[in-house]
Amino acid sequence: MKKWKHSLLTSALAAPAFAQQDADVAIAIEKARSAIEQTRQSLTIDKFATDKFAAEGAALQAAQAKLAQVDIQALAERQLEMQVLKDRIENVGPLAPLHPERVPGNFALAPALALPPGAVFQVRSGNGSYDGGTRALDDHRYEDAIRQFDAVINTRSTRADGALYWKGYALDKAGRKDEAVAAIAKLRQDYPQSRWLNDAQALESALKQGSGQPASAAAETNEDLKLMAINSLMSGDPERAVPLLEGVLKGNSAPRVKERALFVLTQSKAPRATQLLSEYAKGAGNPDMQLRAIRYLGMSATPDSQQQLVSIYSSSNDSGTKREIIRSLMMSKGTDQVFNLAKNEKDPELRIEAIRQLGGMRATPQLMQLYASESSTDNKVSIVRSLMSAGAGDKILELAKNEKDPRVRTEALRSLAHTNSVPSDALMQLYASETDLKNRRELVNGLASRGEVKTLVELARKESDPATKKMIVERISTSHSKEATDYMMELLK
Fold first, then answer.
1. Residue whose C-alpha is closest to residue 484's, from 99, 93, 108
2. Which partner for 448 in 71, 367, 475, 477 could form a disulfide, CB atoms 3.0-4.6 Å apart?
3. How confident is the model at residue 157 (pLDDT cuts 50, 70, 90)?
4. 180: domain CATH number?
5. CB burial class (10 A; 0-12, 13-18, 19+) of residue 485?
6. Is residue 51 part of a domain?
7. Domains contained in the chain, number
8. What angle do CA 328, 333, 335 make, to 5 degrees?
9. What are phi and psi of 268, to 5 degrees?
10. Averaged pLDDT, 153-157
């Protein structure tokens, strides 16, 4: 296979497997997608082609299939979580595997060795049906989309108005025009202040002009062609495409098409492109597009984008929008901005969100400053967890020694026990001075999850309390290391 094909296939196949640490991953994958689309269009298969050429063509198709599964926006959306997860793996120690027989240190996995609540970064959830519906739309599975959006509508969640709009869109594509009109009418009736009403009006106009028949193959192909054109514009001349992209954003295209158009705007340096992105981030479009624009502002990581995000945060009353801004500021490395939100935000959940993101940014000095002035136990616990994400084991050790609040101290001990940045000697000293059985158990579980068999054997030999010693021996017994076997033999003598 030619070198350029091998390189292209390698990058395409690798894309779904790794989430990169910065926003360049989205740009790189978009360019790879564009290159594959252009290659596919230029290929003509000769019926007398050799078996080798046929094999290369099949490999290229396989690469396309792999790349088609990559959701560029989802990668950008999860960028923050992946960075924090990477930090957790590096700094906290072994995570409980999904199907292992043992964890590091030759320990057999026991239920008691699971990481404590809140120790792993929490990924957002709760939008599964809505996101599933938009993915079904992108795949032209309109009946599936309708069922998914009905599930959102019936729960009357915060995204029910958007679900009603997309249900109407899906019903139209499925050839159920009267039901589509009814869905738009219900959107107007149930949500008269919805930010989806402008989109609904455009869809209603299209419904009046439509035939009422299911979407034809030609119409669905047209959506795919739009995607191909947007990909080409991104790698070619994004500036010239701005007016066309603006039209796509205001039209009735599928979610993926609109999201891709918005992404291409981020690649253009044209003033109008910058203005459009800013307008959508401020809420000029529907809520879905606002959240996308906010994420893309975060990806740009410029002082101007950080300033815009803070301004939007100050003027917004929507907690979902504010939460997305906090995450985007983290993505843009806006440590000072997130720190200020953590200090001044009145909403408890948003304040904890800002504290959590400071951990992902490794903002240890800022977290310690927050801790010194904090009176809330819940917030102190969140700060300890963020210090753990930041790999600040030395700071957590100080807190474990000096904190008077029992709940906060237990969290500090739990965090220490599950981080590799604190030596086992320090944990042994804490264990020796600890009188609370629950805290001792946390330290033992942490040492077990770290594979510290030798340390556990030493603790078991010194422990005089029968119940506590039994607990330690139970942890040691799940290991198949030489130290554990020797100690088990010692107990049998």
1. 108
2. 475
3. confident
4. 1.25.40.10
5. middle
6. yes
7. 5
8. 100
9. -95, 140
10. 89
**Tokens for 142?**
């309109």
| Amino acid 221: pLDDT | 53
| Residue 320 sits in the same domain as residue 338 | no
**Helix residue ranges per DSSP H, 361-405:** 364-373, 377-389, 393-402
From residue 69, alpha-carbon distances to 15, 136, 283, 348, 467 in Å are 10, 13, 29, 37, 53
The residue type of 45 is: I
Q: What is the mean pLDDT of residues 363-378?
A: 94
Q: Is 48 exposed, middle or buried (0-12, 13-18, 19+ CB in 10 A)?
A: exposed
Say yes or no: 267 and 325 in one domain.
Answer: yes
Pick from 303, 330, 357: which residue ends a domain? 330
Over range 27-31, report the average pLDDT. Answer: 51
CB distance 403 to 375 below 8 Å: no
Tell me the residue ranges of DSSP E strands in 73-115.
Answer: 102-103, 107-108
User: Tokens 């088990």 correspond to what residue?
Assistant: 488
DSSP string, 284-332: SS-HHHHHHHHHHHHHH--HHHHHHHHHHHHH---HHHHHHHHHHHHHT
Tell whether 79 is covered by a domain.
no
Which of 121-135, 196-210, 250-264, 384-398 bottoms out in mean pLDDT, i.e. has the lowest? 121-135
Is residue 313 pLDDT above 90, yes or no? Answer: yes
pLDDT at residue 306, as a whole number: 93
The per-residue pLDDT for 224 is 63
Total-model pTM = 0.66
Q: For residue 181, is pLDDT > 90?
A: yes
Greatest mean pLDDT among 29-38, 196-205, 414-423: 196-205
Return d(Cα 299, Cα 114) in angstroms, integer: 34
Residue 96 domain-assigned? no
Q: How far apart are CA 39 and CA 31, in angstroms?
A: 12
Checking if the pLDDT of 392 tops 80, the result is: yes
In a domain, 117, yes or no: no
Number of DSSP helices (H) and strands (E) in the chain, helices first: 28, 2
Query: Which residues constitute the domain of residue 269?
Result: 239-330
Handedness of CA 82, 83, 89, 92 (dihedral sign): negative
Euclidean distance between CA atoms 211 and 175, whole angstroms: 8
d(CA 357, CA 407): 22
Least confident range from 172-181, 261-270, 397-406: namely 261-270
